[in-house]
Automatic annotation (TrEMBL), chains A, B:
HAMAP family noted in UniProt: NadE_glutamine_dep
Gene name of the record: nadE
A Gene Ontology BP annotation from the UniProt entry: NAD+ biosynthetic process
Amino acids binding deamido-NAD(+): 374, 403, 513
Keywords from the UniProt entry: ATP-binding, Ligase, NAD, Nucleotide-binding
Gene3D superfamilies for the chain: Carbon-nitrogen hydrolase, HUPs
Pathway(s) it belongs to: Cofactor biosynthesis; NAD(+) biosynthesis; NAD(+) from deamido-NAD(+) (L-Gln route): step 1/1
Protein name in UniProt: Glutamine-dependent NAD(+) synthetase
Biological role: Catalyzes the ATP-dependent amidation of deamido-NAD to form NAD. Uses L-glutamine as a nitrogen source.
Family of this protein: In the C-terminal section; belongs to the NAD synthetase family. Belongs to the NAD synthetase family.
A Pfam family matched in the record: CN_hydrolase
Annotated organism of origin: Thiomicrorhabdus sediminis
Residue ranges of every copy of the CN hydrolase domain listed in the record: 5-246
Binding site residues for L-glutamine: 120, 176, 182
């Protein structure tokens, strides 16, 4: 038996396009891994040097010399530790590859080309990369390490290939975005892999928000018998040591840190917080502002924003109109006070009247309809944007997934904003998250949770005047959008045919609105955005 | 020598998702081909039954039984003619294929699976399809036909493979979107192919607008020596006969119709007209409305809209403010009168004052800045949307590519609209198109073309206060966006370093606005939208 080898899982947050910054993050983490854990090896996430997903930045030829330079810098600066990093490479023929390098003592001792290029869901890797075909196994301190990148581990072949090439441990570099059940899926998948190859796997994921994606970290090491021996925390940067021990004819992962993994509402709330925090901070906004209506969506959005950014970075605006209930004003003011955020009230009556009078000659003889409701929402949107323009804070949109699905929101009105935290959160989950947040400390007035939801755009309006109950609505949306069920299949599950057809029709005709909506945070297996790409012009029906 | 065989190029406009409608279009075209040309064979575009690009509709399992049924209907109804159509297929393992079928006398006699699946630019076919590997050659009336689909013809292998399998003529089904130089590219590419295989090729393209794409048709047949023997018209539906003659040991295309192909500004103007016409008509809008400012962008947009839809479907609104020049009001009114469109004037002063007063307490002590300019634009956007909500007409946005590039436009203001015809048209081309349109008949007041461009959002403002001259700006944009040149490379071409860096910085920081912009019509080799996918959060620089 030789001495143990220490591998540190470098769960960092590479920023997309920030090559110099990422080099700095890598070096800092490597030094800390050395100091803190006497690490032999530090493994970073997929595409460490560029961040993930870099999208069409990969098509810029100017990128590749910069990456070469960054690799050179890593070779120069990291001497006492093996560093495994991910990056893009372009060969002389102009073909691009998704790579991992084993850097040691000033040179790249070995490199690996990703073999499985995901091109589904939010992934477009076949737009950029040519796949590799070779394993990469390298021996260090008596242990043979096999390198794999992300999707490679989700299918059996690259794993088996690495084993056959002599790998005793697999090092897997990932950029795996969060969705509700993803962490369990990763563990279950890796358990199948170790069952097939009887080798331990060290799974390193990145952490942090990038536009509509949140990477939840949660790196882990799994033994050759399928046990999670070491677990890094979720939703935060972390360096976590994994001790490997050479045994008679194998290598095994020793028991190590076991960070807590989040479940249920807590897990989603943490993802939303991280998504908001990183969108705001990486894009350099001094803070956020939002319209606080007294309803549940803006109440939850405010809570997330304050928890993510701190109360001093958040500003709430109540913009009442003749249909705004007193309890809405009271509850908005109360939450703003509880959460200690800057709070203003701007009644929209004067603007509404000015629009009404200016439009009167053109609207003569026409009755009131959705136009007047949308006008209220657009005046509010314009006010928020004026405040945003003046003080630099970014507007948060407050629409939830149920509304986004059926188009129950006003384009350029309540859809205004740079980021839309609840875009993938169905209304029923909005309620559960509000209750969860209040269980930590009561910040959302109870009445906001218990009163019937209303857009308050006409007298005595409630959402259920024009929509099915939210538990029914959300289930129809889930079956249609996430599971791709046909209307007939949904009806056969016991739903009212009229409601099913109405909801699906609304989903189909609202694509044009979604196309102009702000990015939000993917938390389900199918979010709107690059995860679900539908034509606007379409006559498809089932 | 046998008798000639007549192949008709079925240049139709399949509507995405409209399977029943597309079956009807196919049958009608086949009957007409039979009646008019005594056609033996009619060849339709790629993915005829579903329309192209169907995007994630392809992920719906409910689609495939409908396609089966549609194929059954074609088999039942088409008896006296061979019909070659494109469609998607799913096998028992859930793999999807991009197919072409040779339908004759009630059955599919042969079928072909597309081999080259484009996954670049606007194409995502590897997201959906598994590639084929086999040629498909079928003999009819003594001639052996090889089937290929679109991208297959852009590389040598599937063509050579078809020839080696005995093909004497290639039938190529396409859904090839328009861009400036595309038609010449297609002909040049096919000339290379026939030079390699010495076989004639019949190239059938679809026609019509689909969201941000325009398919220009322009189907053609090329002889084994590389001559375009038959040319279908561009930008319109057409059935065009191609006569094939069996010669001693080969088959040749006879001389046939030679429709005129558009060049220069005319070509782009036709593409824009078709794009607007189809977006409006396929989505069922009763017409369009737009803000007419007295500037060149809205003037050209109005001309395109009227030429595409007819004056009775178009409404123009002048929304003057204290900074609006008298000549702007005069020129807008004059163009509206010349083009005989419904025209209203709604001054925005009352709304502006209402906002100003309501915001005064919050803006106390802060000086005027972009906020007040954006406010004017957003009031106009809100007015247009109110009119649109009330009368059902869709708002056309009027931003050009130069503005979209550098973010010289107001989100939720002048960016408001369901469709943005000039989104991919640089400002210098806007001028050329305006002059071209006036050369047909003078509709845009001359002064609109000759006066210095201004957003008129503050006193005496002209665009060149804050932007380089448009000829410089557009060239920097072209080099950076289309050609992916680095700032250094652009500067080396002789541009001012300060201007280059400023423009590129503006392009990079405006991604968030583009993400919320309406779809426009791709006319260049790289349009914003799915053709150029950039992260919003990015620190990349070159």
């Amino acid at each position: 038996m030789t001495e143990a080898v220490t591998v540190v899982m470098g769960q960092i947050d590479p920023v997309v396009g920030d090559i110099d910054g990422n080099v700095h993050r890598i070096i800092k983490a490597a030094e800390q891994a050395k100091d803190q854990f006497h690490a032999d090896i530090i493994v970073f996430p997929e595409m460490t040097l560029l961040g993930y997903p870099p999208e069409d930045l990969l098509l810029r030829n100017g990128l590749y010399p910069q990456i070469e330079q960054a690799l050179g810098k890593l070779c120069d600066e990291l001497n006492d530790i093996v560093c495994v990093v991910g990056y893009p490479m372009m060969d002389d023929l102009g073909e691009r590859f998704n790579m991992a390098a084993w850097i040691h003592k000033g040179t790249i001792k070995a490199s690996y080309i990703k073999q499985n290029l995901p091109n589904y869901s939010v992934f477009d890797e076949q737009r950029y990369f040519t796949e590799g075909h070779q394993p990469c196994v390298i021996e260090y301190k008596g242990i043979r390490f096999g390198l794999l990148i992300c999707e490679d581990i989700w299918k059996i072949s690259p794993c088996t290939q690495a084993k056959e090439a002599g790998a005793e441990v697999i090092l897997n570099l990932n950029a795996s975005p969060f969705s509700e059940e993803k962490h369990q899926d990763r563990i279950a998948t890796l358990q199948r892999r170790v069952d097939e190859i009887k080798r331990p796997i060290i799974y390193v994921n990145q952490v942090g928000g990038q536009d509509d994606l949140v990477f939840d970290g949660g790196s882990f090491a799994i033994s050759s018998t399928g046990e999670v021996m070491v677990q890094s925390p979720q939703f935060e940067k972390a360096l976590t040591a994994v001790k490997l021990e050479k045994q008679v004819d194998s290598v095994e992962v020793m028991q190590g840190e076991q960070a807590q993994i989040f479940h249920g509402e807590a897990r989603i709330y943490e993802a939303l917080k991280l998504g908001v925090y990183d969108y705001v901070s990486k894009n350099g906004f001094p803070g956020v502002l939002l319209g606080l209506s007294g309803g549940i969506d803006s109440a939850l959005t405010l809570a997330i924003a304050v928890d993510a950014l701190g109360a001093d970075k958040v500003e709430a605006v109540m913009m009442p109109f003749r249909y705004t209930a007193d309890i809405s004003k009271e509850d908005a003011a109360k939450q703003a006070e509880t959460m200690q955020v800057s709070y203003h009230t701007v009644p929209i009556e004067p603007m509404y009247e000015a629009f009404e009078q200016s439009l009167a000659p053109l609207f003569a003889g026409k009755s009131e309809d959705l136009t007047e409701e949308n006008l209220q929402a657009r005046i509010r949107g314009t006010l928020l944007m004026a405040l945003s323009n003046k003080n630099g804070k970014m507007v948060l949109a407050t629409s939830n997934k149920s509304e986004v699905s059926v188009g129950y929101s006003t384009l350029y009105g309540d859809m205004v904003g740079g980021f839309s935290p609840l875009k993938d959160v169905p209304k029923t989950l909005v309620y559960r998250l509000a209750k969860y947040r209040n269980s930590l400390s009561p910040v959302i007035p109870e009445r906001v949770i218990t009163r019937p939801p209303s857009a308050e755009l006409r007298p005595d309006q409630v959402d259920q005047d024009s929509l099915p109950d939210y538990d029914v609505l959300d289930e129809i949306i889930r079956l249609f959008v996430k599971q791709d069920k046909t209307p007939q299949q949904i009806i056969e599950l016991g739903f009212d045919p009229e409601e099913v057809n109405k909801v699906i029709r609304l989903i189909n005709v609202s694509e044009y609105k979604r196309r102009q909506s702000a990015p939000g945070i993917k938390i389900t297996q199918r979010a709107y955005g690059r995860d679900r790409r539908y034509p606007i012009t379409s006559r498809y029906s089932e």
